[in-house]
UniProtKB/TrEMBL annotation:
It comes from the Bacteria. One of its GO terms (biological process) is glutathione metabolic process. This is Hydantoin utilization protein B. GO terms for molecular function: 5-oxoprolinase (ATP-hydrolyzing) activity. Residues 7-528 form the Hydantoinase B/oxoprolinase domain. InterPro entries: Hydantoinase_B, Oxoprolinase-like. Pfam families: Hydantoinase_B (PF02538). One of its GO terms (cellular component) is cytosol.
C-alpha cells in the first residue's frame, strides 16, 4: 500500500485509534479517581527518535501531544523486547515535569529492530514528599516533592525490577492505589504495542516507517498554512499568578510573539526569575518543549479544527526560554506547581495572538483551576488519599458565542469527578457542587461561569490541598469591550459558624464538622455588555446564573417580576459605555498593579536579575518590590530610581559583586 495523501490519513487514523485504545485501557483499569475520572494522563506513540505522532483524540491531557521523548530514550543503555522504562525525574531529559507524573515507555520491535515506542504518563495522587498529594507552592526544592526515579528499566526482558518496585511502594502515602495505577500503565503500553504490530501487518513495515515521518511532515505543513494567515508582526502580552510563593508578590509570565510568514517565535524574556517556590517550569531550555508551547497548539487548533496534533505541529515554532527563570529553571528548584505557570503561559499566549487577531480569538480563560485533594481517615480509621476533582471556571467569551460554563478553555480534557463517586470512595459529604452565580465576565458574549464546591469533613487531622490556587487577586481579562471575570475564593466554615479565608493558600488542615468551600474564577467576556441580547440576560437570570442586581449593574437590563422592563432598560443602556479603544479589560487589581509596575520598570528589573546568580534572583526580586512599594526613590526618574535601588543592593550584599 503506497503512502499517498489518502492512505497517509488512513494511517494517521489507525495510529490515533491505537492511542485511543491505550487511553481506554488505562482509564478503565486505573485505581485512582484522578486517572479513571479526572483523566489526568497521556498516551502517545512516538517515532524511533522520540517524536509523538499519535495521541488520544478526545480525552486525557492534550498538553503532551507534541512531546519529544528523545532525551530520555537516549538515557537507557540498550533496549530488548519486553523492556519497559520509567522516570518521574523532572531534570532527567525534561520529559517528566513534576514528580507526580510517572512516565513510562516501551520499545516496539519488528524483526529485531525498534520501529517506534509506546509511551505515556499518569499523575499520581501522591508520590510522598512534604505534604499530602506532594505539591504545594510553599515547597522550595525538588527533594521535598516526593520520590524521584531516574530513567531506568522497571521491567527488563519481561521481568519486574522488584527492588525499584519496593522503593516506589514504600515512599508514597497510598501504595496500593499507586501500584494499581502503575499496572494500568503497563497494560496501556502493552495494548499500544499490540495495536502497532497490527498496523504494521496491515500497511507493511516500510510504509509504516515512511508514514510516521509523513504524518509529522503533514502536521507541520498544516501548522505553517495556519500561521501564514496571521498578520506578521510583534505582539506583547503578560499575565500574572497572584503570588510567586506563600504570601509573595505577583508572578509574571511575559510573552513577545513574533510572526513572520509561516513561522513564529515565543520569547519569554521578561518573565519572572527562577523562584524559591514550586512554580518553576523545568523545560531545559528546549525551544519546542510542549509545556511552553501548549498555548500555540490550542490557538492553531482553534483556527483549524482539522489540524493534526503531534510533534510536527510545533516545528514552525520556537520558544526563547531564558535560563534561570521561571520558564527554564535549574536544579534543585521545586517544580510541583508548574501546572499553574503553564496555565498562565497559555493565557499569555492566547492574549498575544488575540492582539494579532482580535476578531478570531476569545477573552481570557480563568487561569486558576484548583485540583482539590484530601488526606483523611474513614470510619475504620484507614488512611484515604484521593482527588475530589478540579474547581475552576469556563472559557472566555468568543466573537460568536458565550464561553462554556464550568469547563473548557484551558481545562484540556480534564473532567470533574461526580460527587456520587467521591462520596462513595471518600468520607466526605457534599453540600454544594455547581456553577457560581454572577461569576462570569460581562460582555456581548459573556465568559464562562466558575464552579463552586463545598464539602464537609468528618475526621481530625484532615489535610486538604488545593493545587493551583490562583485568581483571588487578579481577574481574567475581558476582550473587545467585555469585562473581566470574578475572582476566586477558598474558605473554611467551622462548626461554631466562624469563617477562615485562605486566599491562595494551597494546604489547609481541618477537623470534624468543618465545611470547605472553593469557588473558581470566572472567565472574561467578549464585546460590550450593553450589546448583549436582553433576552439572553433574562435567560441567565431565570437560570440562576445572574442576579437581578448584576443584570442591572453589568448589562443595564432591568428585570422585575420575571420580565424585562423595556423602558428602564433602554434608559440604562443609553448611558452605558461602548467597547472603547482598549482591547483588554484587565480588572481593577491588575490595572492598579501595572500603573506602578510598568513594562519599562519590569525591563530594568529583568536585566538586573539576569546578571545575578540564579540562587539570588528570587530574593533580589522581593527586595526590589519591597523598596518600590515603600516609595524608595519615587521622586526620581524611573531609570535613576531603579539604578539607585540596584546599586544599594549590590553594596548591601558584597557576594553579588564577587559572583
Amino acid at each position: 500500500m503506497a503512502i499517498d495523501g489518502r492512505n497517509l490519513q488512513i494511517l494517521a487514523n489507525y495510529c490515533a485509534a491505537a492511542a485511543d485504545a491505550m487511553a481506554f485501557t488505562l482509564m478503565r483499569t486505573a485505581h485512582s479517581t484522578f486517572v479513571k475520572e479526572t483523566e489526568d494522563f497521556s498516551c502517545q506513540i512516538v517515532s524511533r527518535d522520540g517524536l509523538a505522532f499519535a495521541s488520544p483524540r478526545s480525552f486525557g491531557a492534550p498538553w503532551y501531544s507534541g512531546i519529544d521523548y528523545g532525551p530520555v530514550l537516549a538515557m537507557i543503555d540498550g533496549y530488548q523486547e519486553g523492556d519497559i522504562c520509567i522516570t518521574n525525574d523532572s531534570y532527567a531529559g525534561n520529559v517528566a515535569t513534576h514528580s507526580p507524573d510517572i512516565h513510562i515507555w516501551k520499545p516496539v520491535f519488528h524483526q529485531g529492530e525498534i520501529v517506534c515506542f509506546v509511551v505515556g504518563h499518569i499523575h499520581n495522587t501522591d508520590v510522598g514528599g512534604a505534604v499530602p498529594a506532594s505539591l504545594s507552592r510553599s515547597l522550595t526544592e525538588i527533594v521535598q516533592e516526593g520520590i524521584r526515579i531516574p530513567p531506568l528499566k522497571i521491567i527488563s526482558g519481561g521481568q519486574m525490577n522488584e527492588a525499584v518496585a519496593q522503593i516506589m511502594r514504600l515512599n508514597v502515602r497510598a501504595p496500593d492505589q499507586n501500584w494499581g495505577d502503575f499496572n494500568a500503565q503497563i497494560a496501556s503500553v502493552n495494548i499500544g504495542e499490540r495495536k502497532v504490530q497490527e498496523i504494521i501487518a496491515r500497511f507493511g513495515i516500510d510504509d509504516f516507517l515512511t508514514g510516521v515521518e509523513g504524518i509529522l511532515d503533514y502536521a507541520e505543513q498544516q501548522a505553517r498554512s495556519i500561521i501564514s494567515t496571521i498578520p506578521d508582526g510583534e505582539y506583547f502580552y503578560a499575565d500574572y499568578a497572584d503570588e510567586d510563593g506563600e504570601g509573595g508578590y505577583p508572578c509574571r509570565i511575559a510573552i513577545t510573539l513574533r510572526i513572520k510568514g509561516d513561522s513564529l517565535e515565543l520569547d519569554y524574556t521578561g518573565s519572572d526569575p527562577q523562584l524559591a517556590s514550586s512554580l518553576n517550569m523545568p523545560t531545559g531550555g528546549r525551544e519546542r518543549h510542549p509545556l511552553a508551547l501548549v498555548g500555540v497548539t490550542y490557538v492553531l487548533s482553534t483556527l483549524d479544527r482539522s489540524l493534526l496534533l503531534n510533534a510536527g505541529t510545533l516545528r514552525p515554532t520556537r520558544a526563547i526560554l531564558p535560563p534561570g527563570t521561571i520558564m527554564n529553571c535549574e536544579a534543585p528548584a521545586a517544580v510541583g506547581m508548574r501546572s499553574l505557570t503553564c496555565a498562565m503561559s497559555q493565557i499569555a499566549t492566547v492574549g498575544a495572538f488575540s492582539l494579532a487577531m482580535p476578531d478570531r480569538l476569545p477573552a481570557n480563560s480563568p487561569g486558576g483551576n484548583s485540583i482539590i485533594n484530601i488526606r483523611t481517615v474513614d470510619t475504620q480509621n484507614r488512611t484515604v488519599v484521593a482527588s475530589l476533582g478540579p474547581v475552576g471556571g469556563g472559557a472566555g467569551g468568543t466573537p460568536k458565542h458565550d464561553g462554556p460554563d464550568g469547563s473548557g478553555g484551558l481545562s484540556a480534557f480534564l473532567k470533574n469527578t461526580p460527587i456520587e463517586i467521591n462520596e462513595a470512595e471518600v468520607p466526605v459529604r457534599f453540600h454544594r457542587y455547581g456553577l457560581a452565580a454572577d461569576s462570569a465576565g460581562a460582555g456581548k458574549y459573556r465568559g464562562g461561569l466558575a464552579t463552586e464546591m463545598a464539602f464537609e469533613v468528618f475526621a481530625p487531622n484532615t489535610t486538604i490541598t488545593a493545587r493551583n490556587r490562583n485568581r483571588s487577586v487578579f481577574s481574567s481579562a475581558g476582550a473587545a469591550g467585555g469585562r473581566a471575570g470574578s475572582t476566586s475564593w477558598f474558605r473554611t466554615t467551622r462548626p461554631d459558624g466562624s469563617v477562615i479565608e485562605h486566599g491562595n493558600t494551597d494546604v489547609i488542615h481541618c477537623g470534624p464538622g468543618d465545611v470547605v468551600t472553593v469557588k473558581g474564577p470566572g472567565a472574561g467576556g467578549y464585546g460590550a455588555a450593553k450589546d448583549r441580547d436582553a433576552n439572553a440576560v433574562l435567560r441567565d437570570v431565570q437560570c440562576g446564573f445572574l442576579s437581578e442586581q448584576a443584570a442591572r449593574e453589568q448589562y443595564g437590563v432591568v428585570v422585575q417580576r420575571g420580565e424585562i422592563d423595556l423602558s428602564a432598560t433602554e434608559a440604562l443602556r443609553a448611558a452605558m459605555p461602548g467597547a472603547g479603544d482598549k482591547h483588554f479589560d484587565l480588572g481593577a487589581a491588575r490595572e492598579g498593579f501595572e500603573a506602578l509596575w510598568t513594562e519599562d520598570r519590569y525591563r530594568l528589573l529583568t536585566a538586573f536579575l539576569a546578571e545575578r546568580p540564579v540562587v539570588w534572583r528570587h530574593f533580589l526580586k522581593h527586595q526590589v518590590f519591597a523598596a518600590v512599594q515603600k516609595g524608595e526613590g519615587s521622586d526620581l526618574p524611573l531609570d535613576e530610581q531603579m539604578a539607585g535601588l540596584f546599586a544599594r543592593l549590590m553594596a548591601q550584599f558584597p557576594a553579588l559583586s564577587a559572583a
